[in-house]
Task: structure prediction
Amino acid sequence: MLVPHQVSQFLPLKFKEWQINFSLDYRKGGVFYSKTAEQLLFTGGAVPTTYNDRRPFIYPNSVIQNGVDVNGKPIYVENTIPITENNIQDFFPEGNNPALAYRNDILDRSFLKLRDVSLSYVLSEKIASKIKMHNLSLTIYARNLLLWTPASNMYIDPEASNFGNDLTSQLGEFETAPISKQFGVALKANF
Result:
């Protein structure tokens, strides 16, 4: 069994009056339940449901329209184009056993996230002292900019949860909102 492991790293870089800070979070292992994935798969909004270029049939051995007869009524023939990507029950499980589709809703919790980035300019003490300040800096920052997840999780940030921030949140998410990106500007000064 793979034990989940998480590492966070804060990396500052300086050049003259400029400073760039960024932090990376990496997590390897663990799984979680995603109701968002379940809903996207069920409604056909997820990439894996686009097999066969969304041709106009759902189940194998269905029929397709093949023209019209002399009276203008449609002529139907057997659809011989097989579903090749996934078993249809992966997305539309039988009513007596919906657990057949759960293997698509339990996702890998691994991720690499660019959590914070900031760019600061520190005004020289010579100039700052003329306006009776010191440690004067202007910073622009952003949070939650980039997220890399395994190919099996194309749906949601593994840290998103609407179960709070306690142990229950580790179980997964139930149609939670995406984690927002944040941008801002900060002016800091000491008088």
Notes: Strands lie at 5-15, 18-28, 31-34, 63-68, 74-78, 106-108, 111-122, 134-148, 172-173, 182-190. The chain has a mean pLDDT of 78. The helical segments are 35-43, 125-130. Residues 35-43 form the longest helix (9 residues).
